[in-house]
Write a structure and sequence with these properties.
homodimer, about 290 residues, alpha+beta, Protocatechuate 3,4-Dioxygenase, subunit A, 2 domains, 4-stranded antiparallel beta sheet
């Protein structure tokens, strides 16, 4: 190959991996090197700009600890997390679509009976979420595990405010019966900013971008034999619905939040005031073999 | 544009920057996003592979402190540092070529008289380095500042071994006279590994790559009116000459290390034993206006 030149730069780097005994790693690094060199040639960074990039990566790394993952945040705001999710969750037509898991899922949450009011801090506008989990033919799925979680009315998940919010506030696990139906009571979610006091937040500001995610709540629905569905459903009237800082919104994940003023319906669903009715069905694809 | 999809992913991200008031930053991020998304689509990383990448970047960031810059090391071993250097030092034919500065340059080193023996620890095989600094027409340049630095015979720069090596060991500054000539005494350089006890070193090992740089010594040659030359000259017989871990070698930077056994020449050049004679001329381009 010869020595490094501007023209053959990527190939010279790739050629050094001839003794690599991990074909997948070699492929991944080769692709990254090719695209990275192409990007650098297109950008033609000055030495000072290159140093700014080094310093940005360094401060992003220094921001990371057990509680804060600034590189995941960077991946999120560059659309990379959503792209990886999309590539890993291609499904047949008719199947519910995935979106990013996000950092606030918690394993081992205790099972709750259907209909539970999972809002434990009494804040916000009441909401009834319900629907049916079925397969692609519309046959209800019995025994599906439905994990739900969302922020409280102040825009924080319970795990972000330990000691302030009750444990498992707005977080629960349900299991469907033979009819595949689920229903629970919660509060209408609100939009909230991703953590923006670090290098990624500063970058967003310099790019003229806001840090907000539109109001949504999370679902993780799993059942043996079916492709696990990780998704949110979104409020289409949220001001940030068209500009989610992490690009999680999909057309098919917009729900209707229907205000219910009928006292009889309120009574039936154990609300004492107006509530929002959110009906949303999920269709699971068969597990890829 | 609509919501994020696998197909339009990069463009959706780029479109969020419409309010950015820094056109260069917007351009840089747009190019990076386009290439990053293209790389991700080509790689199709699993969620687990994506997380490994996040963890690699995080541990690389955590390795960085005031003394260790692991992201620069990463840039170096991926050929990015050399590429940025190449893009920023395109020169007319006949001009001496640049290579990377490296982390061991020191500003404000005191001026030494020509001919000084800059090896202060007495280790290694003696070497006489000499040549002429001229312009592209071959006219000698008077008053050129020549900064030189290299490792000692153990493969460490003075600043890596403060308290072990004498201050300014194998590091000096000279200024040319009317004839443009320079000469100084030192020791034949040795190959040495880049710091390989961190994430970048572990990556090199997994890629089947060694961490060595072939034997070289550094020059930084500057004079008002001329394009500053940052370069090394290399020993072509070094076992790593064809596989520099940071890709710094260029054909035009290979020197001859000629052993001199003639006692008369040894006496003339103030050596008591065999030494290596390394003659290397530099040609500086006019400063770009």
């Amino acid at each position: 190959m010869g020595y490094f030149t501007e023209e053959n730069s990527a190939q010279v780097v790739i050629d050094t991996m001839s003794d690599c005994d991990n074909p997948r790693l070699k492929e991944v690094v080769s692709v990254l090197v090719r695209h990275l060199h192409a990007a650098v040639k297109e950008i033609e960074p000055s030495q000072d700009e290159w140093m700014q990039a080094i310093q940005f990566l360094t401060s992003t790394g220094h921001m990371c600890d057990d509680w804060r993952q600034e590189f995941i945040l960077l991946s999120d705001v560059l659309g990379v997390s959503m792209l990886v999710d999309a590539l890993n969750s291609r499904r047949p037509p008719g199947a519910s679509e995935n979106t990013v898991l996000g950092p606030f899922h918690v394993a081992d949450v205790p099972l709750s009976p259907m209909g539970t009011n999972i809002c434990l801090d009494g804040k916000g506008e009441p909401m009834l979420a319900h629907g049916v989990v079925s397969d692609l033919d519309g046959t209800p799925i019995e025994g599906a595990k439905i994990e739900v979680w969302q922020t409280n009315d102040d825009g924080f998940y319970d795990v972000q405010q330990k000691g302030i919010q009750p444990e498992f506030n707005l977080r629960a696990v349900f299991r469907t019966g033979a009819d595949g139906r689920y229903w629970f009571r919660a509060v209408k979610p609100t939009s909230y900013p991703i953590p923006d006091d670090g290098p990624v937040g500063k970058l967003l500001a310099r790019l003229g971008r806001h840090p907000y995610r539109p109001a949504h709540f999370h679902y993780l629905i799993s059942r043996e034999g079916y492709d696990t569905l990780t998704t949110h459903i979104f409020d289409p009237d949220d001001p940030y619905i068209g500009s989610d800082a992490v690009f999680g919104v999909k057309e098919s994940l917009l729900a209707d939040f229907v205000p219910v003023d009928d006292p009889e319906l309120q009574r039936q669903n154990a609300f004492e005031t107006r509530y929002f009715d959110v009906e949303f069905d999920f269709r699971l694809a068969n597990e890829a073999v």
